[in-house]
Amino acid sequence: MSRTTALDADHYVHTVRRHNSDPLTLAAAIAASGLLTDYVVYEQPGRWFVAGNPIGAVTVGPDRLHCTLGGDHTESWSGTPWAQIRAALDRAPVPKWRAYGWACFELYRPDTAAPDDVLAHFIVPGVEFEITETTVHSRSYGTAFDLDLTGIVTATTIPTPVPVDEVDTAYLQRVRHALDRIHDGEFHKVIMSRRVDLPFAVDMPATYATVRRANTPARSFLLDLGGWQAAGVSPETVLEADATGLVTTQPLAGTRARTGHADHDRALRDDLLTDPKEIYEHATSVRLAYDELDSVGSTTRVSEFLDIKERGTVQHLGSRVETLLAADRTCWDALAAVFPAVTASGIPKAAACAAIGDLEPGTRGLYSGAVIRADSSGTLDAALILRAVYQRDGRSWLRAGAGVVAGSTPDREHEETCEKLACIAPYIVPRTPEADTCDLPGFFHESACRRRPPDGS
């Protein structure tokens, strides 16, 4: 095993090592070790990022933003907080910061949240791993976080499938109410979702690995941050931005099942591509995504249209819209323009989100929000939080939704939620007492097991 180590001007120690493990297994094992506090695992094509032990954080409530980077700072916000989040991250004691975090659906309508709710939470990590097929790049603030790749122990996990196809009569009624409001001209499309509670606590890292192996996501994520735990396989990105100012969003709308039988799946695909209701739902979503990006861009175009994207147990109509940011705009302005994703809210967005608040019980929280990875250079990657398992305050649950338009029927939208839940429900691993301990002997050096985050929290 080769190893190189260097210290950069930001006081991060860089270490590069080769490995012979499966990257997914390695990322899940690091998360399961118990040695990272407030962590996020984020998969982009060809690499997994594991970040935790923050040197500071930015949290956003319904009307206040609090930052512990570069001192303790609180300020008010209204409208949209994204530009202030970026400015708060710029207070980090490292000029070339990287940040990871999440944003709840209710960040778009903070008036629906309780006064003490946290609607977004970002960290600048003290420890960050970037895992490829052959190497692990680590960055640790101040001193090395010594990772021993030779001691990985892969535990055997047995999922407990969860039934999700019981008829949810309350959901059927919500879809009927949504259709009535569509016919009255209040909005054109709204995503109605339903929740399935789980009867046991979930081993999140083990479930993440099991779910990811069974799916073909655009992104995947695992997090334990700010009181939320979640593991999911995101079907689409809310926003992708690079340092040149090119930003992209990827709306997926229109769904059919994938059964694993090639001929039947091909027939379902052909049906999807010719179904007027599904094509209308998709085309209107693409049009809104275009208008949103065009509001911050100088050159906007649809670079893909009506492709088929296979996502585990379902297949979707997928398109891609991109723009080059205007000179006075940033990727955070673009995120403000498209959040929450049209494919998880509706059209027009404000009216649809208001209807979601009226018709769905409680709040959504992370569901249909975003997991975000960003840095000081202007790159940003935001995954839509769908196809996930959630855990908070001693409760665990799944959630899925379907787009309701004038041509919808309640039974078909309910069936679609079942198809989407099937991406996750068969692969849930219950938490056992052994999962609450650091049982990966040799995985980290002993000195690392005693490490606390640099801010002492």
TrEMBL record:
Keywords, comma-separated and alphabetical: Lyase, Magnesium, Metal-binding
SUPFAM superfamilies hit by this protein: ADC synthase
Cofactor(s) demanded: Mg(2+)
Lineage, opening ranks: Bacteria, Bacillati, Actinomycetota, Actinomycetes, Mycobacteriales
GO MF terms held by the record: isochorismate synthase activity; metal ion binding; oxo-acid-lyase activity
GO biological process: L-tryptophan biosynthetic process
Domain of life: Bacteria
Span of domain Chorismate-utilising enzyme C-terminal: 170-420
Protein name listed in UniProt: Salicylate synthase
Pfam families linked: Chorismate_bind
